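#struct-help
A.M.: can someone run this one for me? Single chain, 420 residues.
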Amino acid sequence: MKHQIVIIGAGTAGITVAAQLLLKNKKLDIAIIDPASKHYYQPAWTLVGAGTYDFKSTERDMGDLIPKGAKWIQEYVEDVLPDEHAVVLRDGTKINYDYLVACPGIQINLGEVDGLRETMGKNGVCSNYIDPNYTWQVLQEFQGGTAIFTQPNTPIRCGGAPQKIMYLADDYWRKTGVRGQSDILFITPGSVIFGVEPFATTLMEIVDRKGLQLRFFHKITKIDGENKRVFFDIMKPYENITHLCYNYSDLEDSQVIEGHANLKFDMLHLAPPQSAPDFIRRSKLAYPDGPNKGWLDVNINSLQHNVYPNVFGLGDSAALPTAKTGAAIRKQAPVVVENLLHLIEKKGEVAEKYQGYSSCPIVTGYGKMLLAEFNYKGERDSDPLLTKFFDTSKELYPMWVLKKYGLPYMYWNLMLKGKA
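D.P.: on it. Structure tokens below:
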């Protein structure tokens, strides 16, 4: 079996690229490989986890979204063999291609934290990345105590999501009257809560206003769900643990001993460790070593593979030094489409037009959001039209409306149809 263009993944990137290609040339022979029967608008899962969005509204049948003119192969990928211009399916079928677009998304690795698989979804251990409905259940059942929100020591989809649900939880617990009996901690292996100004300053003001405790350079290693304890390795030398914290306060029944910390929790929200899918990690399309090991080896501006010129990569599985978000894909997809058509039409060099744009709509409470937009240089890269009317670095109700209503509409009706 052979197709002119094979796209691995029918997520945001795969469907958007296929739709844009077919709008430009409906005669293209395109196959999309993805085993999923459902497609989810995952950016809304933060709101689902806070009880302000219906989970069923984030779900569509995959068959309704595959662009007309593309063939959907509903099967798992087992291997990619770029030297043979081939993709091998789990059932053994080999599909050859002239051009490959690799955008299989990201893989959640529960096994990388000892005890996580066994306790996820119970014992007050939740994740909006896995089951936002259970997060909402945990928030409602919380009666005070210690609430911990964590990030892993890996790249993750939507890096701001772990703190968004913390801000919403704080807001919800103030409404239900249990916030006064609660400690809320954000524990991260990173050194800051956000890396781009002026958004970082705004977020630190919110941290102060809400009375949240931050602990930096902490890598989660183990969870004892039944006894409600979480364990961390401390990644930086310290004289006093307070030097690695912000708004530090002692917690009941917690320990810090020689580079390790363990804390008692009453609820724990995780962004679990993540990676590119295994079939990408073990293929020749991935970096074999170094800091980007296991992620797609593509030119960060053209999104063309650095070794195999008939291959492009975008989305969450690509080794791009920017946030892994749907907004980033919206800017990446047109670059891939233009360059792929350029190659097909034999027009010479590809263009290096993608400058790392991504955005993180950071919900800071019910009815409040700031819109952090930035590029590879870590500079603010806000939409000029929006900023003409709004200071998107501040908490605004119109940004909340954009998040809850505008962006989902744009996603389903424009982006996945190749029109945005």
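A.M.: thanks! The longest strand covers residues 94-102.
D.P.: also worth noting: The chain has ten helices and 23 strands.
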